[in-house]
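Chain particulars:
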Amino acid sequence: MIIPKLSPDRRAKIDEYVRLRSRVAAWRPAANPDAAAFQALQAEIQSWFEKQPAEERILAVGRNYTLPISARKKSRRLIKIPALLKKLGTAWIVEHFTPTLAALDKCPLNPEEMGSFIEESFDGPRIIGEPVETRPQQRQLPKAA
């Protein structure tokens, strides 16, 4: 671990950062008293239209308001992957396909073999960790009346 010598100005900024961090972590917005009822009513209204065609948008008309309800989100997924890869061919796959490192960690090659195909470096951002009090702060006692 490296402990660099910092200028007094930088040391003061570290202390100010920790004080601000504590205040930011302690801040909580007021609880919204309507949030639970809103979520329950939203779920109930959505349940009314479960059997409607998925691709259709809906207008739910109340006494005073009309509520637009979207069609279901279209999702896509690959099927018949081996046949697709065969159809695309090796040249297309090499140009467009990048396996994830997580998937490669599970492949049948041993770590030594994988080492020649994976480059590692320390280039990500640094993360500021939990502060530790270096010197106890002088606490001011309330003045006696």
